[in-house]
Each structure stands twice: as structure tokens, then as C-alpha cells.
């Protein structure tokens, strides 16, 4: 055990220092780094800024490992912020949310908050319709990450989830690396090790609005998901265990389709999800070199292509945004102001052994990758 803990401690040292913090001047997105400095759980929060040779900018805070802003050019060359979020760290702390967050230890839902690992049953928080959602009451979205800015285009974040945290077994040492490439891609690499068999499913929960104006909503966004099947849910948003064809249903996004075209139809899955909030079974089958989904704004021409080595993608249409929260620049976030596209293992995989496994054993290395690549269609 001591040897394992030494390995975990060594792993965390890779990201244990905060360096190259932004200290002067507002960002391209208009954020003031001083507004992102406060102490949370005994650690200092910061705003880190990544820029590439094209002028694209990504701002990230170590509170919750969150993407705060993404500035990309539209078809007229105007820079647009294409994610929801807040102007200060205080707002992130005061308004519980998942905007831009790193999600863990297990992204999405676990049925009744129960898992069995090596014959032992563990009870997790039941924080969403009787199920465990996004790691429990205080998931990674509310945790403080250690941070190291490697260079102007790379940020490493690290977090040690201790044995028993939110009910999960094992000390889980995690590292999340954000790399902004010169072809306008945000390459997110997740790595983790454990000293006891556990479950892990890390993802990013950015809320995208490619219009660059959340007041306009997502209904005109064109979405393509390269998936012939999806995992249906019941009325509590829990996967039933079925893998169903998207053919001849409102879940078929194999061709570019406006999000608002069918979202309010009478299809039972849309009723259960209050719109789209489902996992798609990707045709790419873990091939990170292939596009698994594309989102496009006809207004701005901004295109987002997604790549992953994961088997699933959660498409959530912002159905629970309700206009009670004001985000950056005082914009009210109304229902369906955004689109979330979360790469993942299928929801409740720990309780469905026939699905791709989310188990991680000592000596194994968890590796997950998500690439958000931006371009423009003129």
C-alpha cells in the first residue's frame, strides 16, 4: 500500500505547482483575471489563458477544472465567445452549476447510486431523481485542482480523489491536460490511476452556443452525430439497458439537423428527457482520428467537430436552464441556450456488464481523450 501511495503522490507532483498565472490585463473574452482569485477549500483559484498562433483564446480556471471562455473567429473574422460561464470565480461558487467543468469521478448517472466492486456494494449520493449524477453532491466540478501552465498553449490540472470521497472506493489520482493546438483544437487528455479497483468516467461539460450569443438559443444549430444507435432512458433519466436504433426516430442525427426541428415532438424519449438528454452509441468505436459529431451555427458559420476514443456521447440540449442565472456580460441563460456534447462511457455502465467497462484496477492507467476542433464554413 505504501508503494502505491508513493506512486500516486509522485503522479500528483507533476501538476502540483501553479506557474505562469495570468496577472495583468483583461483577456480577449473580456475576463479580468483578478476576478478569478480567491481561496476555496484552502487553495488559491486562478484564471489560466491559452492562445495559439491564430489568435484563438481559451480561458480555464482550476476551480472544477473549468473552461470559462473560448474565443474563435466567425465567418466574418469577428471573435466570438462560444461557451456559457461566469465573469468571476465568486459566481461559480455561489451558483451550483456544471458550466465548462471537468466531471468525475463518474460522469452521468449511476442507477440508485449503487455500484458493486469486487463483491462489495458501495452506496453513492442520490442527487438526481434517486440516482448518482456527475460524481455526487460534490463532484470534480466543485473541487480544487492543482495547476501547472506548461507553456502558452498547454495547461495541466491534477486532483487526488480520496478513498471514500462521495462514496467511491480507492484513491484516484487524476491529471487533465488541455492543449490548444494551432489548428484551433482543444485537445483534452484525461489520465488516472488508482490503488483500489474503482470506476472512472471523466468528461467535460462545456455549454456551447456557436452563435456567440446565448440569448439566441440553440434551435438553429445544426447537429450531426455519427451513431446508428442510442441508449433509451426511463422517466428518471436512467438508461434501461437497451441499445436502440435511431432509424425512423427523432433521435436520428446522422444527417445535419436543426436541434429545434423535433425537440418538442411527442416521441416518448423526448418526453422523458424533457428534450434531448441522451447517450449515443458512436459509430467511431473509439477511433479518435474520426469525427464523431459536428455542431454548426448557420448564423456565424462556426463549426465544432468532436473526436474521442470513448464509445459514447451525451447530447444535452440545456433543457433545465430556466432563466434564473445570469452569465458573462449579464446575459440571462434561458432554456436551451446551449448544447452540451460530452464524450463518455455509457450511463450506468458499472451496473451493465455487457457495456464497455468503466472499471479501473491498480496497475492500470485510465486514458480518455476528447478533442473539440473549431473551424468556419463561409
What is the compact description of this entry?
The chain has 378 residues and is mainly beta.
Oligomer classification: single chain
Total domains: 2
Straight-line N-to-C gap: 58 Å
Q: What name is given to the CATH topology of the largest domain?
A: Beta-galactosidase, Chain A, domain 5
What's the alpha carbon Rg, rounded to whole Å?
20 Å
Structural class: mainly beta
Low-confidence stretches: 14-23
Major sheet: order of its strands? 12-13-14-15-28-24-23-18-21
Helix content: under 10%
Percent of sequence in beta strands: 35-45%
Principal-axis shape equals globular
Please describe what this structure looks like.
It is a single chain. With 378 residues, the chain is mainly β. Helices cover 6% and strands 35% of the residues. The chain has two domains: 33-204, Beta-galactosidase, Chain A, domain 5; 215-356, Beta-galactosidase, Chain A, domain 5, CATH 2.70.98.10. It has helices at 2-13, 89-94, 268-273; strands at residues 39-40, 43-44, 47-51, 57-61, 66-73, 79-81, 101-103, 109-110, 114-117, 120-123, 132-133, 146-151, 154-161, 172-180, 185-194, 198-199, 203-205, 222-225, 227-231, 244-245, 257-258, 277-282, 291-296, 302-308, 312-316, 340-344, 359-360, 366-376. The protein is globular and about 55 Å long.
Amino acid at each position: 500500500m505504501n508503494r502505491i501511495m508513493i506512486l500516486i503522490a509522485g503522479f500528483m507532483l507533476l501538476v502540483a505547482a501553479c506557474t505562469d498565472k495570468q496577472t495583468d490585463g483583461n483577456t480577449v473574452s473580456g475576463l479580468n483575471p483578478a476576478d478569478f482569485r480567491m481561496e476555496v477549500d484552502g487553495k488559491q483559484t486562478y484564471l489560466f489563458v491559452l492562445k495559439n498562433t491564430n489568435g484563438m483564446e481559451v480561458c480555464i480556471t482550476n476551480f472544477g477544472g473549468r473552461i470559462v471562455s473560448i474565443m474563435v473567429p466567425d465567418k466574418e473574422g469577428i471573435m466570438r465567445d462560444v461557451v456559457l460561464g461566469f465573469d468571476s470565480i465568486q459566481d461559480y461558487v455561489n451558483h451550483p452549476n456544471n458550466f465548462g467543468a471537468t466531471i468525475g469521478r463518474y460522469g452521468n448517472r449511476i442507477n440508485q447510486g449503487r455500484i458493486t466492486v469486487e463483491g462489495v456494494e458501495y452506496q453513492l449520493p442520490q442527487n438526481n431523481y434517486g440516482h448518482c449524477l456527475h460524481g455526487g453532491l460534490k463532484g470534480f466540478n466543485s473541487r480544487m485542482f492543482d495547476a501547472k501552465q506548461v507553456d502558452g498553449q498547454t495547461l495541466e490540472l491534477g486532483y487526488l480523489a480520496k478513498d471514500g470521497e462521495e462514496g467511491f472506493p480507492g484513491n484516484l489520482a487524476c491529471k487533465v491536460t488541455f492543449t490548444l493546438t494551432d489548428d484551433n483544437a482543444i485537445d483534452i487528455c484525461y489520465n488516472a490511476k488508482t490503488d483500489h479497483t474503482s470506476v472512472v468516467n471523466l468528461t467535460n461539460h462545456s455549454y456551447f452556443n456557436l452563435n456567440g450569443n446565448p440569448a439566441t438559443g440553440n434551435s438553429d444549430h445544426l447537429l450531426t452525430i455519427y451513431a446508428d444507435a442510442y441508449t433509451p432512458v426511463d422517466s428518471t433519466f436512467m438508461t434501461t439497458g437497451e441499445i436502440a436504433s435511431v432509424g425512423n426516430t427523432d433521435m436520428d442525427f446522422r444527417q445535419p439537423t436543426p436541434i429545434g426541428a423535433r425537440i418538442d415532438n411527442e416521441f416518448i424519449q423526448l418526453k422523458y428527457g424533457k428534450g434531448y438528454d441522451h447517450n449515443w452509441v458512436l459509430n467511431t468505436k473509439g477511433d479518435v482520428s474520426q469525427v464523431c459529431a459536428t455542431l454548426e451555427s448557420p448564423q456565424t458559420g462556426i463549426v465544432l467537430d468532436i473526436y474521442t476514443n470513448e464509445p459514447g456521447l451525451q447530447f444535452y440540449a440545456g433543457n433545465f436552464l430556466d432563466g434564473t442565472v445570469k452569465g458573462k456580460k449579464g446575459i440571462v441563460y434561458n432554456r436551451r441556450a446551449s448544447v452540451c456534447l460530452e464524450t463518455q462511457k455509457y450511463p450506468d455502465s458499472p451496473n451493465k456488464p455487457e457495456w464497455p467497462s468503466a472499471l479501473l484496477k491498480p496497475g492500470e492507467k485510465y486514458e480518455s481523450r476528447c478533442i473539440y476542433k473549431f473551424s468556419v464554413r463561409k
